[in-house]
Input
Amino acid sequence: MKAKRAWIVALTTIFAGIALALVQNKVAPCMSTLMIAFSIDMATAGWLSSLFSLVGIVVALPASVILKRFGPKKGGIFALGCAIIGSLIGVFTDNATILMATRIIEGIGVGLIAVIGPSLIAMWFPEAKRGLPMSIWGAYQMGAQAVMFFLGSALTMSFGWQGMWWFAGAACVIALVLYVVCVKSPRPEDSHADVQNENVSISEGVRSGSTWLISLVTMLFCIGCFGFVNWIATCWSEIFNWSEGDANFWVGAFSIGGLFAAVLIGALLNKLKNWRLFGMLALVFYGVISLLGMNMPSPLFIVAFVIIYAFADAGFPCVLWTMTAQTVKKPELAGVAMGVVCVGFNVGILLGPPITGAVAEVWGWTAASVLICATCLLSMLLLKFVRLYKAE
Output
C-alpha cells in the first residue's frame, strides 16, 4: 500500500509539473501571433518567454523555506493557483505590460514546483527506488515542450494566442483538483527526506559545497542543452532549406522521444549503484550528440538522430534529481538542495540561448556546437568532484 500511495503522489506531482511547464512553454509556439496582437518587438516577445528563468532564480531558495514552513501540499496548491490566476488575467488583457506581469505571477508557480516536485518524491521513495520516479520527473519539461509545439499551430489558428493560455490554464485546473485529492506528505516516521523537520536549519543546506557544485554542473549543462534546443530548428532550417514548421516538428518529435527514454533510463537507474559515473557518461554523450546534430551532413539521418538524441537529452536530467538529495549530509535538507540546484538550472536556461545564438551568428553553427559540447565536457569534469553523502 505504501508503494501504491507513493506512486499516486509521484504521478500526480509529475502531472502538476507538466501542467505548469505548459504554462511556461506557451509563448514560443505563438510568438509571431503575440507580436502582432500586442504590437511588440522581438526583444519584448523574448522577455515573455525568458522571464520565467529570472523568476525561477529568485524563487528557488525561498521555495525551500516555503516547503519547510507550509509543506509540499500547500506549496503545490499555491504554485498551481499562481499559474491559474496569471493565465486568467493574461487571457483577457490587451496590454503588453499587464501580460508581462502575469508571466511573473505564473513564473512564481513554476519556480515553486521545480523545488517541491523532486522534494516530494524524495520524501516518498527511498534512495534505491528513486531512480524511476525522479527520471520521469526530469522529463516533465520535455513533455510540455512537445505538447505545445505539436498543438501550438492548431490552437493558435482556432482560438488565437488565447488558445494557448486557455489550454495551459485548463491543465493547471485539472492538476490542482488531482493535487488536492491525491497528494499528501508521508508520516514523519515513514518519510525518507523529512523536509518539514523544524530542527533543520535552511542555512545548513545552503552551506553545502557539494550542492553548489552540482548546481554549477547543472548550469553548464543547461547552457548547452537549452542553447541547442532553442536554435536547432533554426540551424536545420538554414542548412537543409526547411520551413520553420518542418524543423519544429522534429524538435517536438525528440521531445516526445525523451519521455520514453526517461522511463527506460529510470528503470535502469533503480538497478545501478554508481549514479555519478552514469551522469558523467550522459554528459559526454550529450556533448557529442549535439555536436553531430548541428553538423548533420544530410536530412536523411534525421530519424536516427531524433531517436538517439531523445536518450541523450534525458540522460543527465534523470540522474541529476536522483543525485541532488545526496549532496547534503541530512535527508531533511533535500528540499534546500533542490532549491540550490534550481538556481543553476534557471541561470543555465537564461544564458544558454543568447550565448549560443551570439556564437552562431558570428562564427557559425559549427562553433556553436563546439561551445555546447565544451560546456558538457566541463560539467562532466566538475561532476567528478561532487561529494555524495550516501552510498553510490
